[in-house]
Amino acid sequence: xxxxxxxxxxxxxxxxxxxxxxxxxxxxxxxxxxxxxxxxxxxxxxxxxxxxxxxxxxxxxxxxxxxxxxxxxxxxxxxxxxxxxxxxxxxxxxxxxxxxxxxxxxxxxxxxxxxxxxxxxxxxxxxxxxxxxxxxxxxxxxxxxxxxxxxxxxxxxxxxxxxxxxxxxxxxxxxxxxxxxxxxxxxxxxxxxxxxxxxxxxxxxxxxxxxxxxxxxxxxxxxxxxxxxxxxxxxxxxxxxxxxxxxxxxxxxxxxxxxxxxxxxxxxxxxxxxxxxxxxxxxxxxxxxxxxxxxxxxxxxxxxxxxxx
Length: 309
Description:
Elements (H helix, E strand, L loop, with lengths): L1 E4 L14 H14 L3 E5 L12 H15 L4 E6 L2 H9 L4 E4 L5 H7 L2 E5 L17 H19 L4 E4 L8 H9 L1 H5 L6 E2 L5 H6 L16 E5 L2 E5 L17 H14 L3 E2 L4 H10 L29
Parallel strand pairs: 1-2, 2-3, 3-4, 4-5, 5-6, 7-10
Antiparallel strand pairs: 8-9
């Protein structure tokens, strides 16, 4: 799935594809590079991002969705029921739902639904990173939402753990280390790690300019898109996170890791590089990036019966 943000403030490519012609051209380039689905979004959902009006979001995405859906499967990345319905009306076949609250809309319209875990809106999600067991809680919440959407008639459902959405660095790593728990639910799993801030820390480019904290005395967390250290320690760890477009290697590593773990759908900015990395690792992409999805537009095929959960 190729990411296409038509926003001025997305964390990675904000402002790059504001013009419809530029956005459509980039979408077509990603299709040529191997993307089976183009995910069009008109509202930034990075931590701390402010909401935009429905009218503004519609103005950013509708023409792009309509143009691209003539030849490929398009998903609409939105939290808005109004935007989701309008995008489907002009050709979108999947609702990529950051808030996991639009399953009933997907069921009503007969289109696919990606349920992504996010415990709170972007403006306050950084305040909601506390879990007793992040893997168990996220898995249980998503499996329940998927089952309910399927019960209502959604023809195809994916679950997405929402890396970076209301999780600190430790929570993100726990989820990545235990993708098998999500796969074991039987629901197709989608994942987006591309260019995210936690990858800047993991890439080895953190700038340790002072004595690292004593083990166990401080917790590395994410404040918006900036890693910081909280808690008492005998020293400070100062992290200079590389820019979003300089996190390619870590993005590719997590994509290969996820594919090997059985993830069905990878949401990425760098389609050609990801395809090459998967090929080099001997992990060929699925023929349509997710079983049951037509890559020529229209509603997805019927949802496979999930494994016993």
